[in-house]
Design a protein that fits this description.
By secondary structure, this protein is an alpha+beta fold. The protein has helices spanning 3-26, 39-49; strands at residues 58-60, 63-64, 69-71, 76-81, 88-97, 103-109, 114-115, 118-119, 123-125, 134-138, 142-148, 154-158. Strands 2-1-4-11-6-9 form a six-stranded antiparallel β-sheet, with no helix packed on it. The chain has a four-stranded antiparallel β-sheet with strand order 3-12-5-10, with no helix packed on it. The chain has a two-stranded antiparallel ribbon with strand order 7-8.
Length: 160
């Protein structure tokens, strides 16, 4: 490909991105708090983010996660994460209910796991990131602990 053609394509892509951003920011329907990426964008993130954790990978007493998980106020549920061949997997949860702000989630990898030579650390939500809870899950499995510290029930399901 000639360098001139490449330069023209880059300028065109830049202009289209700028138009899309301006159109998105200018519309009243797009709010940062309730933004849900389109399906094509989610599919692209799947290519870069590794495979997703599925409901059968999360078990409590040998039973797979039943969606949605209803977690009453003041309750805690623990799920074991199955081991996998993939070095990392990802999982995101969608949370609804009146006690949404009182939910705490902790992922603790099984001991001795390493990623690129470094030991892996537990992850917590809420954390400094905004939005629904998402985690990187390591090949050796681990445990998820969901705690509802609020008075009302919360429904938790895996993001599609």
């Amino acid at each position: 490909m000639k360098i001139k053609t490449l330069q023209i394509m880059l300028v065109l892509v830049t202009v289209l991105c700028a138009v899309g951003i301006i159109a998105g920011l200018g519309s009243d329907g797009m709010k940062v708090d309730n933004f849900r990426p389109p399906a094509w964008l989610k599919a692209m993130s799947g290519l870069a983010g590794g495979p997703r954790l599925s409901a059968p990978d999360l078990t409590a007493n040998g039973v797979s996660l039943q969606e949605p998980l209803v977690l009453p106020g003041g309750r805690t549920r623990q799920f074991n994460v199955a081991r996998a061949d993939d070095e990392v997997r990802r999982v995101a949860f969608l949370v609804t209910g009146s006690s949404h702000g009182a939910l705490n989630i902790r992922y603790t990898p099984n001991s001795g796991q390493r990623l690129k030579g470094k030991s892996v650390d537990p992850q917590n939500w809420p954390n400094e990131e905004k939005g629904d809870p998402s985690f990187v899950v390591y090949s050796g499995g681990g445990k998820f602990v969901f705690t509802n510290a609020g008075p009302g029930s919360i429904k938790i399901r895996l993001e599609d």
